[in-house]
Amino acid sequence: MVKIKAFDLHTKTREELLKQLEELKKELQQLRVAKVTGGAASKLSKIKVVRKSVARVLTVINQKKKEAVRGAFKGKKYMPLDLRPKKTRALRQKLTKFESTKKTLRQIKKDRHFPQRTFAVKA
């Protein structure tokens, strides 16, 4: 089996990817049996290539799945935690601009009844 390229996998559908994954896993199983029974050196070196190909196929499947979920939650108010931007904990918990500029009723009354005094400074 030739080494699989990730960009080739992106064009395939989910069913095709799952079918290819099954084929790769079967081939890997056969190669492992050949390893135990003392197969040719070419088969033993092929194990690594097949393992990496399985990983590529699984990666593309997961990427497609995550992209579909992203599309489903596009424009929604709430989003799953793994789709939200990571940033830092402090940035995630920071108050929004609206929340930070909001005043309490007491502060509003205080500002209304005791406005900022203006002084004429003699120069």
Rg value: 30 Å
Strand content bin: under 5%
Uncertain regions: pLDDT < 50 for 5+ in a row? none
Largest pleated sheet: none
Q: State the separation between the terminal residues, measured CA to CA.
A: 89 Å
Element-by-element helix/strand order: HHHHHH
Count the E strands. 0
Summed up, the helix count is 6
- Global outline: rod-shaped
Structural class: mainly alpha
Helix content: 55-70%
Average pLDDT works out at 93
Characteristics:
single chain
Structure characterization notes:
This protein has 123 residues and is mainly α. It is rod-shaped, with a radius of gyration of 30 Å. Helix 2 (14-37) packs antiparallel against helix 3. It contains six helices and no strands.
SSE order and pairing:
Blueprint: H1 6-9, H2 14-37, H3 41-72, H4 89-93, H5 97-101, H6 105-113
How would you summarize this macromolecular structure in one to three sentences?
The chain has 123 residues and is mostly helical. The chain has helices at residues 6-9, 14-37, 41-72, 89-93, 97-101, 105-113.
